[in-house]
């Protein structure tokens, strides 16, 4: 039986930002149930626990965190080193590959690279990034290569690959994929499976906007997870996280695999966390 948990964050993660992560809300629930949950920042200090959760909010996890997690009897997501989208995508479009349908251009990195900008730059750059999050401004033209994505809300949809600049296909920081939406009653849909081990909860969000996120969602409900997505969490080595997917032409299509999912603050989300947190008792 698990009685103590260590959550391993990047050394530059800020404690005041932790409520922005789902794990913070799950930890609160576990503590209320009598479990001991400790937050560790970096790898310099080892605190014993029955189980560790690797929660380094980067697309590519530094090896030192993977090795540090091995010191624990059980480590969740301790095998996940790299979650670049090109490694999970089955719908990547290449230049002149014959596909002529709609495409979406997105960042190769998790959440449009925000975590990397938050954690891996110099102290001054990290401070400027945090300021920009609170007081957004428009970057001067030419200061970043186009397309520049501040968040997934900036991802671009084109009717055809022929409308995408040819040099974008060869970039290693962005990805061109087939745009395969799920549409119900004229609304775009996104399914999110939040899981811990073999237990989880799946929600369906609907939006009038083709890029479905918290700000564009007009309806949310709990649905059954597609069994193929459940199998995929295991095949990809995920033990904690959130998979976003759609059902397109009857087939589940994985859009994003996130090992450090973010959090909402509304009452319905907290109810989701209550169910999600139960997974700790099934490990």
What key phrases describe this protein's structure?
single chain; alpha+beta; D-amino Acid Aminotransferase, Chain A, domain 1; six-stranded antiparallel sheet; 13 strands
CATH superfamily of the largest domain: ATP-grasp fold, B domain
What is the number of domains? 3
Number of strands: 13
Rg of Cα set: 19 Å
Globally, the shape reads globular
CATH classification, class level of the largest domain: Alpha Beta
Strand content: 25-35%
What report would you give on this structure?
The chain has 283 residues and is an alpha+beta fold. The chain has 3 domains: 4-76; 92-178, no CATH class; 182-282, ATP-grasp fold, B domain (D-amino Acid Aminotransferase, Chain A, domain 1), CATH 3.30.470. Helices cover 21% and strands 27% of the residues. The chain contains 7 helices and 13 strands. It has helices at residues 22-32, 63-69, 85-88, 114-119, 123-134, 227-235, 267-276; strands at 4-9, 36-41, 51-54, 75-76, 103-107, 156-158, 174-178, 182-184, 187-196, 199-207, 217-223, 240-248, 251-258. Strands 8, 9, 10, 11, 12 and 13 form a 6-stranded antiparallel beta sheet that branches. Helix 1 (22-32) crosses helix 7 (267-276). The radius of gyration is 19 Å and the shape is globular. The termini are close together.
Map the helices and strands.
Layout lengths: L3 E6 L12 H11 L3 E6 L9 E4 L8 H7 L5 E2 L8 H4 L14 E5 L6 H6 L3 H12 L21 E3 L15 E5 L3 E3 L2 E10 L2 E9 L9 E7 L3 H9 L4 E9 L2 E8 L8 H10 L7
Parallel strand pairs: 1-2, 1-3, 3-4
Antiparallel strand pairs: 5-6, 5-7, 8-9, 9-10, 9-12, 10-11, 12-13
């Amino acid at each position: 039986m698990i009685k103590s948990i260590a959550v391993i964050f990047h050394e530059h993660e800020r404690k005041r930002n932790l409520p922005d992560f789902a794990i913070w809300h799950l930890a609160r629930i576990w503590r209320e149930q009598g479990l001991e949950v400790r937050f560790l920042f970096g790898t310099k200090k080892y605190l014993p626990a029955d189980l560790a959760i690797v929660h380094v909010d980067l697309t590519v996890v530094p090896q030192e965190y993977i090795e540090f997690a091995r010191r624990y009897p059980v480590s969740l997501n301790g095998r996940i080193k790299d979650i670049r989208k090109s490694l999970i995508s089955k719908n990547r479009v290449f230049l002149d590959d014959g596909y002529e349908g709609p495409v979406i251009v997105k960042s190769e990195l998790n959440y449009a690279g925000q975590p990397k900008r938050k954690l891996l730059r110099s102290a001054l750059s990290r401070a400027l990034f945090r300021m920009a999050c609170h007081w957004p401004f428009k970057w001067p033209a030419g200061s970043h290569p186009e397309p520049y994505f501040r968040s997934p809300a900036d991802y671009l949809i084109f009717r055809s690959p022929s409308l995408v600049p040819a040099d974008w296909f060869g970039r290693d920081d962005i990805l061109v994929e087939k745009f395969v939406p799920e549409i119900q009653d004229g609304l775009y849909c996104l399914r999110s499976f939040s899981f811990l081990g073999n237990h989880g909860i799946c929600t369906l969000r609907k939006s009038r906007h083709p890029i479905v996120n918290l700000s564009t969602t007009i309806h949310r409900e709990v649905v059954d997870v597609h069994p193929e997505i459940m199998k995929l969490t295991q095949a990809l080595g995920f033990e904690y996280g959130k998979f976003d997917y759609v059902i397109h032409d009857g087939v589940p299509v994985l859009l994003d695999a996130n090992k450090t999912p973010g959090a909402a603050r509304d009452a319905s989300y907290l109810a989701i966390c209550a169910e999600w947190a139960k997974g700790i008792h099934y490990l």
